[in-house]
């Protein structure tokens, strides 16, 4: 039975050690990778969308709820990274704990999560780039910075329209970052660290100046009256949490860097938890200022922080925020494309994808073929899909992957109770017979379900109202995954070959 195929931890570690990738990253670089991958379109774009369409000023609570959902999963990621110090993130953890078929679907979900996240970030980049160029007197025609399909909020759900247009800035940003990754990680991670520091300092400046320009009236009512369909009220806060959940995609990219970390058992947990805590603090402060300087109904724009900076009345701050948005979103693209390419590399190394995708360039020591293919696919998505559809697809895939990560911790603790674990999740003392049940991973599974539920309800209501695009995209993606695994991965995996031998 295919379900019985599981890697041992020793097999996973051996494959990681012989990958050919260089160990160049310490805890600081890993934390910067996490922050750089996380602080992006979620706060630069989706915070405004969530406030304007779902939660109003209570979007601050939405960030808290989404942050808690990620924190429990971050603890689980940190334990798995310390006990199974290999690349591949949740994919490899599932391979060791749950078996090959589950690992395939986790990997396929992660490729969706990272790839579509990149497209969403590129869409945010486009909005800030066009706004910044406008300030310089350069006007980009709308057909050249809008995706083929656009979305808008309608009384019966999300309305879609298509036209002859293409988002060129978004496409170009993905291709440029892809070229950087193909060139090499050592040089790119240094550039990424510098960009992350610039982005973080700019957001701190935005918060510091914005606190002096807050209008407390904009926070009243804190919970706008419910209009039904997850719009405002208490349910709107949870719907907004599932939207801003998109803002937290990226911190797990740290777990894909185990093969390139100097001391993965120690450094990866530091990078995962440290970057998540830093990002959550930044998000809460920015959301507080954002809803305090601009009426929340006006925030449904592609560049809400730029709008807020203009409202503050500081021209120099507005220019700085827009420039940091343009440059900073590139660091998010770098982190997400990096994580996606390393998962792709690991899956190919296991034989589930063709071997061309785990071959390293002789000079750059990077998986060039996989990075190029993924970059082209992400560029295509960025050119054609609206960020509203993209963010919901990402959040569904992310919540499902987070649930599996927490389940993997339970399975790993139960199956390997004596294994070395330099880091252990808090609140994990409960055991029923041979089954270990930690409160932290159980809460992680619960919160993943809470994040996914409003999205699934809206997906179903969209189908009933005639909006089939999200369901079609998800269906096609999962169908292609089933076909690839059935006709290639099942017979070509390394475990299948070892059994035949």
From TrEMBL:
Chief location? membrane
Q: Which GO terms describe its molecular function?
A: amino acid transmembrane transporter activity
Keyword Membrane set for record: yes
The protein's topology relative to the membrane is:
Multi-pass membrane protein
Q: Which Gene3D superfamilies match?
A: Amino acid/polyamine transporter I
Where it sits in the cell: the answer is: Membrane
**Protein name, UniProt field:** Amino acid permease
Species this chain originates from = Acetobacter aceti
């Amino acid at each position: 039975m295919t379900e019985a195929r599981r890697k041992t931890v020793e097999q996973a570690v051996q494959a990681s050690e012989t990958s050919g990738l260089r160990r160049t990253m310490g805890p600081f670089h890993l934390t910067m990778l996490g922050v750089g991958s996380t602080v992006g379109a979620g706060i630069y774009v989706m915070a405004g969308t969530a406030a304007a369409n779902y939660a109003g000023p209570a979007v601050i609570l939405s960030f808290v709820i989404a942050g808690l959902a990620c924190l429990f999963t971050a603890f689980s990621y940190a334990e798995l990274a310390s006990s199974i110090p290999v690349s591949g993130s949740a994919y490899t953890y599932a391979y060791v704990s749950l078996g090959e078929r589950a690992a395939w679907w986790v990997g396929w979900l992660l490729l969706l999560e990272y790839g579509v996240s990149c497209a969403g970030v590129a869409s945010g980049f486009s909005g800030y780039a066009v706004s910044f160029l406008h300030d310089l007197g350069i006007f980009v025609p709308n057909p050249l910075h809008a995706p083929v399909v656009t979305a808008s909020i309608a009384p019966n759900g999300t309305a879609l329209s298509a036209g002859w247009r293409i988002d060129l800035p978004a496409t170009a940003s993905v291709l440029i970052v892809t070229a950087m990754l193909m060139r090499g990680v050592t040089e790119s991670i240094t550039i990424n660290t510098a960009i992350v520091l610039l982005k973080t300092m700019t957001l701190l400046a935005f918060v510091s100046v914005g606190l002096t320009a807050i209008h407390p009236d904009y926070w009243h009512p804190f919970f706008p009256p419910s209009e039904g369909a997850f719009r405002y009220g208490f349910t709107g806060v949870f719907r907004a949490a599932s939207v801003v959940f998109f803002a937290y995609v990226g911190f797990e990219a740290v777990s894909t860097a185990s093969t390139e970390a100097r001391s993965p058992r120690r450094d990866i947990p530091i990078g995962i938890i440290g970057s998540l805590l830093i990002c959550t603090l930044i998000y809460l402060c920015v959301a507080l200022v954002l809803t305090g300087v601009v009426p929340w109904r006006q925030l449904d724009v592609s560049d809400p922080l730029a709008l807020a900076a203009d409202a503050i009345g500081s021209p120099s701050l507005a220019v700085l925020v827009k420039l940091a948005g343009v440059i900073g979103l590139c660091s998010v693209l770098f982190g997400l494309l990096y994580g996606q390419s390393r998962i792709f590399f690991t899956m190919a190394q296991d034989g589930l994808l063709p071997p061309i995708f785990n071959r390293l360039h002789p000079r750059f020591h990077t998986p060039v073929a996989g990075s190029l293919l993924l970059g082209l696919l992400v560029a295509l998505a960025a050119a054609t899909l609206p960020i509203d559809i993209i963010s919901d697809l990402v959040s569904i895939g992310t919540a499902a992957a987070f649930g599996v990560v927490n389940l993997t911790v339970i399975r790993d603790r139960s199956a390997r109770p004596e294994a070395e674990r330099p880091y252990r999740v808090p609140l994990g003392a409960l055991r029923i017979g041979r089954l270990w049940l930690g409160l932290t991973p159980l809460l992680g599974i619960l919160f993943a379900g809470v994040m996914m539920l409003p999205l699934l309800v809206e997906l179903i209501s969209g189908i009933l109202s005639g909006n089939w695009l999200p369901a079609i995209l998800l269906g096609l993606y999962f169908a292609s995954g089933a076909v690839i695994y059935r006709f290639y991965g099942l017979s070509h995996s390394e475990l299948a070959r070892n059994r035949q031998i």
